Amino acid sequence: GESVGLHLPTLSVQEGDNSIINCAYSNSASDYFIWYKQESGKGPQFIIDIRSNMDKRQGQRVTVLLNKTVKHLSLQIAATQPGDSAVYFCAENPWGSQGNLIFGKGTKLSVKP
Amino acid sequence: GAVVSQHPSRVICKSGTSVKIECRSLDFQATTMFWYRQFPKKSLMLMATSNEGSKATYEQGVEKDKFLINHASLTLSTLTVTSAHPEDSSFYICSATDRGNSPLHFGNGTRLTVT
After folding, report:
1. Cβ–Cβ below 8 Å for B102 and A36
2. CA distance, residue A52 to nearest chain B CA (Å)
């Protein structure tokens, strides 16, 4: 079936290094993608989104890259900080309307001081 | 920014009882709210879509008589877990959006434990 998955379930980085979290999606109809950060015991927090007519979008310390050819999405975090430690989920919307997101499995990012 | 408030954050109940979880959009009107369930170290699974003034749309495999959803206003949706069983223990999260095709804003979830 169609799904969103992640290449790496866990990622450990040194404080100050850059982090790259990857995500593969299989639904070619998806036109909207979001990265969420979820801290323990909390709901997902929006980080950044990107639409299929773009291949790169930058935010504060974060960059999302979209490669529609290989159906790949990545989240880059610059100068990773201990506060970035969390589980990161990518989500796709193949229906072109609000809501009804399909979430990937999540990657746990651990930042070592 | 848009804020979604969920209450309670934690609840413990006995088997056979019912539990109501509230989801409120605090500074925007949400015609649609979504209810997710999350097991430990797992991803979010959509349970149902809650539409203001109409019946909720449930995902395949989700019992509508078990998980009652009411979306009575543009700022409030409730999820009632009826006749709770231990296997209903989970993290329930609601979300809403304040405009079409925009990122969902999530509540902080409700940890339900059924004893």
Report:
1. no
2. 13
Closest CA to A39 of A105, A72, A86: A86
Token pair in block for residue A51: 């639409």
φ/ψ (deg, to 5) at B2 = -65, 140
Token reading at B24: 């409120």
| Contact indicator for A48, A75 with CB cutoff of 8 Å | yes
CA dist B86 and B115 (Å) reads 6
| Dihedral pair phi/psi, residue A55, rounded to 5° | -120, -5
B88: closest CA of chain A, how far (Å): 17
Element (H, E) at B4: strand B4-7
* A99–B contact, CB cutoff 8 A: yes
The contacts of residue A60 (CB under 8 Å, 6+ apart) are: none
Q: Report d(CA B109, CA A101) in Å as an integer.
A: 17
Tell me the per-residue pLDDT of B32-72, one tens digit each, with 9 for 90 and over: 899 999 988 888 999 999 888 888 999 999 999 999 999 88
Euclidean distance between CA atoms B93 and B87, whole angstroms: 17
Separation CA A73–CA A56 (nearest Å): 10
**Beta partners for residue B45, in sequence order:** B37
A28-41 pLDDT per residue, tens: 888 889 999 999 99
